[in-house]
Amino acid sequence: MKNGRNKLCWCGSGKKYKHCHLDRNRSKPVKIWETNEVLSKAFTHKECLCPENLKTSCTGDIIKAHSVPKSWLKKISINGHVLGYKKDLMSIARHKGFPVPEKIGVNKASIFTGFCKFHDSNIFKEIEDSPFIGSDEQCFLLAYRAACREYFTKYCAVQVIPEMRKQDSGRDIVFQIQYQSLLDKHEEMSKLGLKNISSEKNLMDKALDLKDYSDVEYYYLTFKGTAPILSSGGVFITHDFHGNELQNLADINISPNALYYSVVPLGERFSACFVWHKNSRESCLKFIDSLHTQPEYKIGPCVISFLIEFCENNYFNPLWWAALSPNEHSTINKQFSRGINPHVSRFKDCLLRNQLDSIQWELLDISSNVEPQS
């Protein structure tokens, strides 16, 4: 590829060619552990994500806050450990591109440096210190914590892109062009995702400021038994359990609908909670309706399929995982691997094709502050 030394580099970095890709193919190749360190460092960003007008009351250092409460993780742990997917490059490489659940200490599971000690304790005390009864406030706080973590991960993902553009050293020009093109698409979608989750977080910041949860809608199912999996996250939901596409995230002219979810341990019961702002009602109610209309024996398989397909912040009860068959392990791991790959398009029936009907959860109750459409 011809590019004048003093011209802007073809990769779009904004640097002159001589300071960017000139002779980069002759540089020392970047090792996978070096790229892993770059990514890991980016996600050590520290910021209290409380609403702006509460920042004057920040006290103490930014802590490693749990997106899934530590007290909840302890309820499903064995010897202080749960099972979870490690998403770093070294773990993915070690398992040849197909992550498998590994032991993670409850002190490290689900953490992100997104709150100061005061606000992590004060904002979420209603779900940390009180029994879960599915109140409006508790459901809101589950969603708020998930939204903050989603904002944190998307912010860090955008910030690390300039460093990731340097990771093609020592590779031939064909690889460099393909790599930079892939990063262009990744950057575009990452920035769009950050913009969208920022808008969502602003809505929820206002609700928290006013302690007004009337715009928050929820639907949760309570099952019998010890929680097999704990999760927390948010997603701009794209597909339902009937194989319908709910929204097109590539359309930059829409404000996508966000759905938040958590699995809450309740001793000998557990709840799968889905929460959304009323502005996201259109897609979220269609999603909930497609779950609500399933036969009862399909509810458990539907929920686990959703969590594996759309949530990377999952932690398994080691006893539950050990009781699954090798085929069930393989199905779950393959679905998770495909779900976290941003360069693989989801099948319209992604929530149908990998359901494990052998996983049966006894449904005890359904609670909601909205009526499903069917």
Provide a quick synopsis of the model:
The chain is α+β, with helices and mostly antiparallel strands and 374 residues long. It is 40% helix and 16% strand. A hairpin with a 3-residue loop joins β7 and β8 (269-277).
Main attributes of the structure:
alpha+beta; single chain; 40% helix; 8-stranded antiparallel sheet; two-stranded antiparallel ribbon; 10 strands; 374 residues; 2 domains; globular
Cα distance, first to last residue? 59 Å
> Measured on Cα atoms, how large is the radius of gyration?
22 Å
Low-confidence stretches: none
Shape: globular
This entry's quaternary arrangement is single chain
Helix segment tally: 12
In sequence order, what are the helices and strands, one letter per element? HEHEHEEHHHHHEEEEHHEHHE
Output mean pLDDT.
92
Q: How much strand?
A: 15-25%
Number of strands: 10
Helix content: 25-40%
User: What structural class should be given to the helix and strand makeup?
Assistant: alpha+beta
Major sheet size, sense and barrel closure: 8 strands, antiparallel
Number of structurally distinct domains = 2
Task: Report strand order across the widest sheet.
Answer: 3-2-9-6-7-8-5-10
Describe the protein's architecture and organization:
40% of the residues lie in helices and 16% in strands. By secondary structure, the chain is α+β, with helices and mostly antiparallel strands. The protein folds into two domains: 32-210, no CATH class; 216-368, no CATH class. Strands 3-2-9-6-7-8-5-10 form an eight-stranded antiparallel beta sheet, with helices on both faces.
